[in-house]
Amino acid sequence: MTVQTVTPKRRFRGKPRGRELDPRLLEGLRELLGDERQHATLRRRDLLIEHLHAIQDTRGHLLLADLRALAAYMNLPMAAVYETATFYAHFDVIHDDQLPPPAVTIRVCDSLTCQLAGAEALKAQLEANVDIEQVRVLRAPCMGRCDTAPVAEVGHYHVPFATQARIASVIETATFTPPPSIGSVLRAIAVRVDWHCSRPVTTARSR
Q1: For the residues 72-95, what does the mean pLDDT come to?
Q2: Is 90:47 a contact under the CB 8 Å cutoff?
Q3: pTM score, two decimals?
């Protein structure tokens, strides 16, 4: 009796796995962060958090599409970018089935010191009085400012000895908006260093 082994044919994918990258998002990143094709230092892995902050500050949140574009931009696995973005509480990662968050986010520190100083009551007071379509109130891990408890953070601005009135004042004056030039200055320094290091060394003999 002859037994014939039949090897099934392998099916090859016509397209790579995962979502297709919108080239417009990649071009948008180049406008925001700089062109990584001209300045390879922009792909350094230690700049991942800086790039995430730049996107978060510009858009107010991080769409999964933005993370896919950043992964392609930095030549990193999507998993590495996603895990970093979701590890830190200050990054707002929005999945494909979610709506973007309100324009203003108030984070109330929930450390033991802040709890003893009235953080829980402050959070409840804020939740009862804000417009939930414009402002959201969240708990946040220790902010390292126990000497000014309770502490809240509006955007990137820390409010010491936080009260509802103090927080409302910060929102009204929009002092929680980060300076837009910080990220661009750091990126310009990185590009400048890359350009300087790539210049040929001129010695007395070569002149």
Answers
A1: 90
A2: no
A3: 0.61
